[in-house]
Amino acid sequence: MLVIESTGISDVGRKRKGNEDALLLDDSMNLFVVADGMGGHKAGEVASNIVVKTIHDYMKRFNDNSSEVEELEDSDNSLSKYANRLVSSIHLANKGIYGLSQTNESYQGMGSTVSAVLFTEENLIAANVGDSPIYLIHDGSIELLSVPHTVLAEQAAIDPEGARKLGPHFRHMLTQAVGIGLTLKPDVCETPCFKGDILVLSSDGLSDKVTPEEILETVKNEKLQKTCQALVDLANERGGDDNVTVIVLKVKDKKNKKGALRGLLSKIWNIVYNFSFK
Amino acid sequence: MPTLTLKFKDSVISEYVLEKEKSLNIGRREDNNIIIDNLAVSGHHAKVDSVGDGFLLTDLQSKNGSFVNEQFVSSHWLKHGDVITIGKHTLVFKYKEGEARTEAAGPEDMDQTMVMDTSSYKSMLAKSSPGTASASPAAKPQEKEPVGILSFVSGGDGEKEILKKLFKIGKASTNDIVVGGFMVGQVAATISKRPGGYFISYEGSGSKPKVNGNSVSESVQLKDFDVIEIGSVKMHFFLK
Question: Where are the domains of chain A?
């Protein structure tokens, strides 16, 4: 089991009246979610809250050992069962929002991004839809684990030169979002993590204003509990045009005594082996 | 709804009505909505998407380019009276008389996050862009997306594709590659596929995996033709 230190803030920013972002920090389940809602009036807020709540409730069911939860049939065999559960929870949120938007006129066209991180015994699973980034900081370098579903990013993958000509108004045009249609395809990444690794999840209110390098610097210089506020302050100093939500997670320890003992034994064996057979 | 009128020099060839939430593909091949049979036109030359209330022309990296009012464009919000030139043909964009016109969306609208809702656009991107992860569960990996391959040098035969996001190598039978040997951990190493590429990690039990002769104690990114050694197994990694 991994021990995770977590902290998160959601700030309305300087320009917007309401906060359409939502976040979830569940330390007992090691589940962390940022959702950035969109849609007029209060619809964006509704959508992002449904995302967070649906994922939380769905994932919680697997933690209650009392009740057997059936795994979904259409699981993706390139993913672990934990990753499949997380993907299923996102699909469920999608159906919920889409359903609601079809029945209620004021909710028409609402949607949300989602960026979720779940830690299993040894690995981390990052899943996302939309443009809320998930960064992994390992060994002094920062890397994007999420895949931005924006026209600009997807165009840049095909043709960087053409993407530059697209202009800034494409920056906020998503190619998919939770709740917009009946189908969606979250991007998923599963990877081992190590003691000292840091993850940063945010809404685009941060990533529009603060570069990955600046996030890396802030994480290096601030204590974990102060990092979120420092990043939010930075985004607000630069205009705070949008809601800013940040979650920072640190892998404190891998509680795997058996592994450690095995590691030690194997080291001894390695020496003996090298000594006696070479 | 506005129309596109296809012309060659001064003669009108055809007229197409644009619809909300529908895309029109323009090109030489027969799977386009607007087919222009001329060698100056690329197979899939350009497309017009319905975005919000407006219509957006995007050049699909055509060989000879797309022009609006004699200006080269890669993408352009269509306005009433715009003349699109593709090869020697022109397409005139016009709203009907009295119809509500959505001229180019202003920057203030664009600050709001929007979702592009044309599925054809998505499939086009999915087909042509590397790095946008694999399609639906049942689908095979897309042709253009490179897949990591492990090719045995010793301790095994043939090749193995890394189709899982988290690919495990070790002694236990649940691994994707099972490696025997006294020093090999139950899960000796994992290879994870991230947006930035493939990474090999040591899982903390047994002897460490080696990449190009160097022990891996946490994780490193794999490059083409790296040599991976785990126990008695030696493999090449490459992208195909």
Answer: 2-276
Owner of token pair 């795997």: A256
How large is the ipTM? 0.81
B151 and B236 Cβ atoms separated by less than 8 Å: yes
Provide the β-strand partners of residue B72. B67
b/e map B70-80, b = 16+ CB within 10 Å: eeebbbbbbbe
* Dist. CA A146–CA B17, nearest whole Å: 39
A229 CA: distance to closest CA in chain B (Å): 24
Highest-scoring range by mean pLDDT, A274-278, B98-102, B132-136:
B98-102
CA dihedral B119, B122, B128, B130 (to 10 degrees): -150
How many whole angstroms separate alpha carbon A192 and alpha carbon A58? 24
Distance between CA atoms of residues A180 and B115, nearest Å: 8
Task: Name the B residues in 31-90 with CB < 8 Å from any A CB.
Answer: 51, 59, 61, 74-75
Residues A225-230 have a mean pLDDT of 94
The CATH number that domain A2-276 falls under is: 3.60.40.10
CB atoms within 10 A of CB A23: 21
Count Cβ atoms below 10 Å from residue B213 Cβ, excluding itself: 7
B104 in A contact zone (CB under 8 Å)? no
Q: Given the structure tokens 């590429």, which residue do they identify?
A: B197
